[in-house]
Fold Octanoyltransferase.
Amino acid sequence: MTKSLTITYIPEIEYGVAWDKQKQLVKAIDEQQQDEHLLLLQHPPTYTIGSQRHPEHLLLGPDQLRERGISVFEIDRGGDITYHGPGQLVGYPLIWLDGGKGLDLHGYLRSLEQVVIDYLRQYGIEGSRKPEYTGVWVGDEKICAIGVKFNKCRHRKGFITSHGFAFNVKSGIQEEGFRGIIPCGIQEYGVTSLEDVTGRPFTVEETAQEIVPFFKRVFGY
């Protein structure tokens, strides 16, 4: 049976609006009123704090956040604090994981990482994992953060995924947002971007288009 996947690219959307959209899609997919979905988008400058809840990893006070125009959301995904902003491709896969077929939630995270690792390989870049952390790394710098939620289905076995990956595309994103936090609570390593590791320019929309075939291949669409 062929799985159907709807793909939507949004050039920029407020974080709260996208979060609400995810919740609506999760409900519709669970009720089988909507195909599985991949949202690809950019957010305005935003810090999101996951379920680990370490407010001390946010290094900016309220006045500094206002001056820089950065919003803060405490959200329902796993993980610690991260940054979203222009120049970063955010991907929210909203897909059904069948609870009756050897469900492997850890494997889902590894598959998300594999999408980005495979994408980087086409440009001769070796993306890797660090056993103690999620995400994709180039050397000792993180290029893609991952944090997900598994929403238990109400109408069938299994889970619907939400949240997802944040892939740094444009150079300079480190200075724009990551300097105001301890990203994912990790102090010993830095962050990088697709432009930094390849030495060539990219647009976020171009990267979104190019990454779709890798996502489809890894997840069997």
